[in-house]
Design a protein that fits this description.
GO terms for molecular function: oxidoreductase activity. InterPro entries: Epimerase_deHydtase (IPR001509), NAD(P)-bd_dom_sf (IPR036291). It is a single chain. By secondary structure, this protein is α/β, with parallel strands linked by helices. It has a single domain, classed as NAD(P)-binding Rossmann-like Domain (Rossmann fold, 3-Layer(aba) Sandwich). It has eight helices and seven strands. Helix 3 links the parallel strand 4 and strand 5. The termini are far apart.
Length: 269
């Protein structure tokens, strides 16, 4: 029996959204796929909503008839301020306003490690550590985490904010040996967030069961997420094919990696 009548997935054409499009199908009678361009052929249980998150009316309209939202849309990397403002900040406000106006009971939000990127790797922080963004992109994630807290406390909309680290088909470098989140574990994490009996306002780190543990995710144990994958099968190849980084480099010292070394995105290149 599906848990939901209709789930809206924003960013459904993206790297992770495409995986969620397939992986979340058993949880709902209908998946509404949201993106800026048409999706082409749809499965019988799928429907599409084509709009830009910066368009408030269109975004709110896309939330109508949904009882859960998986919000993975927006700028995916550090971007010029205007892009971050329109897609990540304004766009997420539009999503939560749609949820409030149309009675959506739960939102799963793709936050990021970059919300806490300037914490040191050796600090072993928990989910309740102070925010320390490493970029304007990270600031936008902090904004939406705070926004979702407001909408829980004031309007009773549950949210799970997933601070995803590095989710790719396989680890690309030595940092990802500890920051890796497999696609399958990403789907498991979102599924757990959607099916946990109660989440209130929860922040969770998004990681697979990697050998090196850099953070403490016990504050999100109530989600029931159990990762099944690990970066270990890739370790030998990664270590053989990528250079050993300078241990004094900010990209090595901090959770945010190379984002910590970026300049302001609006500065002349």
């Amino acid at each position: 029996m599906p848990h939901y009548e209709r789930i809206l997935i924003t960013g459904a054409a993206g790297r992770l959204g495409s995986e969620l499009r397939k992986g979340l199908a058993p949880l709902t009678k209908t998946v509404r796929l949201a993106g800026r361009t048409p999706f082409g052929e749809l499965a019988p249980h799928e429907e599409e909503a084509v709009f830009d998150l910066a368009d408030m009316d269109a975004t709110i309209a896309a939330t109508e008839g949904c009882d859960a939202i998986v919000h993975f849309g927006g700028a995916a990397l550090e971007s010029p301020w205007q892009a971050v403002l329109d897609s990540n900040i304004r766009g997420s406000y539009h999503i939560y306003e749609g949820a409030r106006k149309h009675g959506v009971r739960r939102v799963i939000y793709a936050s990021s490690v970059h919300a806490i990127g300037f914490h040191g790797i050796e600090d072993h922080i928990g989910v309740d550590a102070p925010v320390r963004p490493d970029s304007l992109y990270g600031v936008s994630k902090n904004f939406v985490e705070s926004l979702s807290r407001l909408y829980w406390d004031k309007f009773g909309i549950e949210s799970v904010c997933l601070r995803i680290f590095s989710s790719f088909p396989e680890p690309k470098d030595r940092r990802m040996l500890w920051s890796y989140l497999s696609f399958a574990d990403c789907v498991r994490l979102v599924e757990a967030s959607l099916t946990a009996p109660w989440v209130g306002h929860t922040i969770s780190f998004g990681l697979s069961d990697n050998k090196v543990k850099t953070v403490d995710n016990s504050g999100a144990d109530h989600l029931g997420y159990i990762p099944r994958d690990s970066s270990e099968p890739f370790r030998a190849a990664v270590e053989a094919n990528t250079p050993t980084p300078d241990p004094k480099s900010p990209s090595v010292k901090y959770l945010g990696g190379w984002f910590c070394e970026l300049g302001h995105p609006d500065d002349p290149k």
